[in-house]
Amino acid sequence: QQQVRQSPQSLTVWEGETAILNCSYEDSTFDYFPWYWQFPRESPALLIAIRPVSNKKEDGRFTIFFNKREKKLSLHITDSQPGDSATYFCAAGAQVVGQLTFGRGTRLQVYA
Amino acid sequence: AQTIHQWPVAEIKAVGSPLSLGCTIKGKSSPNLYWYWQATGGTLQQLFYSITVGQVESVVQLNLSASRPKDDQFILSTEKLLLSHSGFYLCAWGTDTLYFGAGTRLSVL
Predict the structure, then answer these.
(1) Exposure check for chain A: N or C terminus, fewer CB within 10 A?
(2) CB-CB: which of A46, A97, A103 is closest to B49?
(3) Torsion angle, alpha carbons of A28, B91, A34, A79, to 10
């Protein structure tokens, strides 16, 4: 059973467009939602994260929108750049040590 | 600043041979440590976690074992590799946010 779902599996946008990556979860006990990005042949790195006390988290061109009632969140990347091309993983964690569940990722390609 | 080092960077091993992968973290006392596995193009699957020396919790059974012999060291091993063990092995530290090492690429032939 997949607890964290991501869509689309892959996404292609042109430079300057807004990319929207979606994520949903099933477990109501999840209370921390980090997004990681991973470039080819590198390890994942934290990009941005949100807790349910907020419904929006912004960091430069990256914004998380969070809907607790629907158990959905999305990552918006405005003014997309070719350097943003990577695989983006949505993850969900609860206040239990060791519990961080990852989705299957969205592969983003930004063309110049 | 905390640094996490994994070794080796890459391995090519034969089916049935043993394996030992290592991870060391510096600059953090009593860290929570994790092992993750990623198939090519796949998601990140947690394998083990440890919150203290000598204690390791298994999350998924993949014919692998882990040990934490020192506060700053986490070891992943098996006596007999399978083809399905190929992939990218990542060590991480953290509580809710995880910080990953550079990883070890394993090819089992």
Answers:
(1) N
(2) A97
(3) -150
Sign of the Cα torsion B35, B7, B20, B12 reads positive
For residue B33, pLDDT over 60 is answered with yes
Residue B51 to residue A98, Cβ atoms within 8 A: yes
Kindly report, residue by residue over A64-87, the tens digit of the pLDDT: 999 999 999 999 999 999 999 999
Domain A4-111 CATH assignment equals 2.60.40.10: yes
Q: Which residues of B are less than 8 Å from A30 in CB distance?
A: none
Q: Which two tokens stand for residue B5?
A: 């080092």
Has residue A96 got a pLDDT over 80?
Answer: no
CATH C-level class of B3-108: mainly beta
> For testing the chain B interface, which of A29, A42, A43 should be mutated: the one with the most B CBs within 10 Å?
A43
